[in-house]
Design a protein that fits this description.
By secondary structure, the chain is α+β, with helices and mostly antiparallel strands. About 40% of the residues lie in helices and about 15% in strands. The protein is built from twelve helices and twelve strands. The chain has a three-stranded antiparallel β-sheet, with helices on one face. A three-stranded antiparallel β-sheet has the order 4-5-6, with no helix packed on it. It is extended, with a radius of gyration of 30 Å. The relative contact order is 0.13.
């Protein structure tokens, strides 16, 4: 039995036309599922990581090209797709050779079990052209959120593991989007002789006024007389406009909010940090948890990849992330000193000075 050691990975190649037709059929049949990457919860998490990564100050040789915009893209990609690939290039700047890093739009990987022997087929996109290159492993920065040992070449993001949670949130978002995208109107009952809309229609002027009202108040003749028995011949509801439009069940709206909080938790974001609910003290604690338990460990993985591929030591300064928590860090420093810890160790542990990793 050869599996799992030599089981090939199956990939289905679908052309643009075939994929487009499948999407149309699924949409028409109502079987199209939502896209987890289009949900507000995932975007909220990705935006928080992106801004946190952009705030990090990086020092070290050959790191001129590791800009804030590049780090912001890395943080976003790690949460949304689980990986971020950047090709290492050398360019001239002021008669000096400096490194630059081009983000890849798509890529494939070939090779054996040793990552050093992998070859990347990388596609770089422009406004009206694209370029495909073959680059060795040492020529790219391949940041990964996490990996499956059975497929270590592929980065897996939070919703790559919590697939059911992502699908739930996406489907709820899609159903609500369809619900709110339905036509909205007001229905005003009329008797059978209410006119045909032609030139001789006695209600033509009234119908046009109603169509052009756009929320304004109109003064019109009463409909209580002139047609048969007036209000006594029809239910009272027939003499007022009835609105049609989005009316999602409360249970769906509530479930959407609950699933969004689950997505945020899966991404390592305390839900209170995104919702803005709770006390200021609770918000500070959520922020500390986010930076210490989510952002810093992921930055450590990014730094490890940078140091390996650039062959240099790199330092990350996180003082911009911790600057808003000075009060909490000072209280932590005080508690450690009162507990008998040496001043130097307490300063380093609380991050009051330096703020780096």
């Amino acid at each position: 039995m050869r599996w799992p050691w030599s089981k090939p990975e199956k990939r289905e190649s679908v052309g643009y036309t075939e994929g487009f037709l499948r999407a149309l059929i699924a949409q028409a049949s109502g079987s199209a599922g939502g896209d987890p990457s289009a949900s507000w919860a995932l975007e909220t998490a990705a935006a928080l990581y992106s801004r946190a990564f952009a705030a990090v100050k990086i020092t070290g040789d050959r790191t001129e090209g590791v800009t804030a915009s590049m780090m912001a893209l890395v943080g976003r990609n790690l949460i949304r797709s689980g990986q971020s690939l950047h090709v290492i290039d050398v360019r001239h700047s002021l008669n000096l050779l400096v490194l630059s890093f081009s983000p890849s739009g798509s890529f494939d990987i070939y090779g054996g079990e040793d990552e050093a022997d992998w070859t990347y087929r990388v596609t770089l996109y422009g406004p009206d052209a694209l370029k495909t290159r073959y680059v060795p492993s040492g020529g790219v920065l391949h940041f990964r959120y996490s990996i499956d040992p059975a497929r270590p070449w592929r980065g897996i993001g939070p919703l790559g593991w919590a697939t059911d949670t992502g699908a739930l949130q996406a489907n709820l978002e899609k159903r609500l989007s369809e619900e709110t995208g339905a036509p909205t109107a007001h229905l005003l009952p009329l008797p059978q002789d209410g006119g045909d809309g032609g030139e001789d229609d006695p209600l033509a002027s009234l119908k046009q006024d109603i169509a052009d009202a756009r929320g304004r108040t109109l003064l019109v003749e009463t409909a209580m007389s002139g047609w048969g028995e007036g209000m006594s011949g029809a239910p009272r509801s027939d003499w007022k406009a009835n609105r049609i439009g989005a009316d999602p069940p409360d249970a769906i709206v509530s479930l959407r909010s609950d699933s969004a909080m689950a997505v945020l938790s899966a991404c390592g974001v305390p839900p209170g940090l995104a919702s803005g609910e709770g006390t200021a003290q609770g918000a500070r604690e959520d922020y500390r948890r986010f930076v210490m338990l989510s952002v810093e460990p992921l930055l450590s993985q990014v730094r490890e990849e940078l140091e390996t591929k650039l062959e240099t030591e790199i330092a990350f300064d996180l003082k911009n992330l911790w600057g808003h928590d000075l009060q909490g860090r000072a209280a932590s420093f005080k508690a450690m000193v009162q507990g008998g810890m040496a001043l130097e160790k307490a300063v380093a542990a609380s991050g009051l000075i330096g703020g780096g990793e």
